[in-house]
Amino acid sequence: MRIDLHCHSTASDGTDTPAELVRNAAAAGLDVVALTDHDTTRGYAEAIAALPEGLTLITGAELSCRIDGISMHMLAYLFDPEEPALLAERELVRDDRVPRAKGMIAKLDALGVPVTWEQVERIAAGGSVGRPHVATALVELGVVPTVSDAFTEEWLADGGRAFVEKHETDPFEAIRLVKNAGGVCVFAHPAAAKRGRTVPEARIAELAEAGLDGIEVDHMDHDADARDRLRGLAKDLDLLVTGSSDYHGSRKTVTLGAYTTDPEVYGEITRRATGAFPVPGTGGA
User: Fold this and answer.
1) Which of 81, 120, 186, 284 could form a disulfide with 214 if both were Cys (CB 3.0 to 4.6 A apart)?
2) In this structure, what DSSP letter does residue 33 have?
3) What DSSP string describes 102-169?
């Protein structure tokens, strides 16, 4: 089995619609794909309706969190999307994305970069607005060559010249909310140092104690040394190890299935979840 547990659609900051994402996942030879848009579940219905036969969909979300001033992302899988407390927190985070984007645009304007809200809104195309949309605007204007090049201290990285904070959930609270909604929690790309400061291992141990299920190890932003270190940490803390592409369509160079999760780990995730179940494809619309 080929299993990719971290993918984005146009419901947040990917460039594939949810329907295109599942079709492309099947074409890439995947058996299981997870839809994990940022702080939203709006892509579920379209993805399920288009799900090809032979492909299983894992519903999820990538939750925006912050600990000790460090931004981090929590992958939540197979939770009940209508559970009121988790739904309210996702909406709070998502609603803060628009003023945050407008704040970054104002900072860029002060730096002499003519990004506009209309441009970013067009790029987002109804998805949850995020830094990648602002980064894409910088690419369109020729300020940086790629989206990744916008995530530096010069521009949009944490603490960068045009960075603006947004509401982000305390990860201990995120774990509690996801667990209460019947879901499973995996810390996304925990050693992605090029994105900014990373969470110390001592704090990851505390998150494990609080119910964290796993850490994403095999990821494009982790080099070989980081992966070895994270595997050791996961073993010490009895955490599941996942691998995922973090696919964003054409917004990133990584391809679907570039990194995958062991079938036994996938099986354990599905066994632990009680809020929702994997959705088998029946041919799609």
Assistant:
1) 186
2) E
3) HHHHHHHHHTT----HHHHHHHHTTSPP-HHHHHHHHHHTTSSSSHHHHSSTTTTSTT-TT------B
Residue 285's pLDDT band, with cuts at 50, 70 and 90, is low
Torsion angle of C-alpha atoms 147, 152, 155, 160, degrees rounded to 10: 140
Per-residue pLDDT at 284 exceeds 70: no
Distance from chain centroid for Cα 119: 23
**Average model confidence (pLDDT) across the chain:** 95
Q: What SS3 class is residue 28?
A: coil
| SS3 label, residue 10 | coil
Dist. CA 185–CA 153, nearest whole Å: 29
Taken in order 120, 75, 57, 43, the sign of the CA dihedral is negative
Indicate the pLDDT class of residue 134, thresholds 50, 70 and 90: very high
- Tens of pLDDT, residues 46-88: 999 999 999 999 999 999 999 998 999 999 999 999 999 999 9
* Cβ atoms of residues 61 and 87 within 8 Å: no
Mean pLDDT, rounded, for 246-273: 96
Distance CA 30, CA 34 (A): 11
- One-letter amino acid for residue 104 of the chain: M
pTM value is: 0.86
Question: What tokens appear for 72 in the block?
Answer: 């981090």
DSSP 178-241: HHHTT-EEEE-STT-GGGS----HHHHHHHHHTT--EEEEE-TT--HHHHHHHHHHHHHHT-EE
Phi, psi of 184 (to 5 degrees): -125, 140
